[in-house]
Design goal:
The chain is mainly α. Helix content is about 60%, strand content about 0%. It comes from Thalassoglobus neptunius.
Length: about 130
């Protein structure tokens, strides 16, 4: 049995739910959940199935995606630790617009954010001579 299958079964039991109840909550068939829990789900599960199960059990969707292995390797490494998952969750929840992504990208790379590569410059203050 794989790590995701073990966690799914453990979380379901901890929640005091039967497979049928999880099936009803998630919209996934009883037989398919049984196959997942016993590690006989064939070629793996889809991200949609994993997410539906996490929601039904009120668990961390990103952790379930990581455990199930449905995430591409670079993201899988990112989701491996809880602190990184928290960052990704906050990032997804922020619903950044393009300027926000620019600022984040700049902050991560250590450069200053500019949209066209040039900064607006202040005009020097004019110096008037005092009239006596």
């Amino acid at each position: 049995m794989n790590e995701f299958a073990e966690r799914l079964r453990s979380d379901r039991r901890e929640a005091g739910l039967t497979v049928r109840e999880v099936a009803e909550l998630s919209g996934i068939s009883f037989s398919y959940i049984t196959k997942i829990e016993t590690g006989r789900s064939g070629s793996g599960v889809s991200p949609e199935i994993v997410t539906a199960l996490a929601k039904a059990l009120q668990r961390d969707e990103l952790e379930y995606l990581y455990l199930s292995g449905v995430v591409p390797p670079p993201l899988n490494d990112l989701l491996a630790d809880g602190e990184s998952r928290s960052f990704v969750r906050a990032l997804l929840a922020s619903r950044l617009k393009s300027k926000g992504w620019e600022r984040l990208r700049s902050a991560l790379s250590g450069s200053s954010p500019t949209s066209s590569g040039s900064r607006t410059q202040r005009k020097p203050k004019s110096r008037r001579k005092a009239v006596a």
